[in-house]
Amino acid sequence: MNKNKGFTLIELVIVIVILGILAATAAPKFIDLTGDARESVMAGLEGSMQSAVEISHAKALIEGETATSGEIQIGSDFYALANGWPIAVSGTGVTTDGFGIKDLLEIDTTADTGDFEITSESGSTIIFTHPDAEDKLTCIVQFDNAVDAETRPDITTDFSGC
């Protein structure tokens, strides 16, 4: 009577083939999480921007700064407002050299080391992108100034290229 206990070579090969098939189908789902991480970082920027807009607008209302141009002071810094809302780009039409939304959020846009890049910046619009985005035109958070006191700034996103 042969009472050898163990696996045959064929059984071991079948198990290895099955494990290989499972690894080949499951690995891509776990390997490429960088796009999701970039998208999450950009969504975090959008949320921070929304919060900063609401808080600074509340402070502007309390201080009566709802004119076409104005400013609020936070700490020792002045932040520029348009119609009681924070503006995209620093210091247009304020009594001091007020900062824009980038400075309000303390966003680091330093070349090669910053958390975000600015792909477009004008008097009323600023567009941020992730420095490692696959497509810098479609991994963005865009901030547009408020057009009047009743309309909040427009914050739009496109994460399709992250």
Automatic annotation (TrEMBL):
PROSITE patterns the UniProt entry points to: PROKAR_NTER_METHYL
Name of the protein described by the UniProt record: Type II secretion system protein
A matching Pfam family: N_methyl
SUPFAM superfamilies, per database record: Pili subunits (SSF54523)
Domain of life, per lineage: Bacteria
Membrane-crossing residue ranges in chain numbering: none
InterPro entries, A to Z: N_methyl_site (IPR012902), Pilin-like (IPR045584)
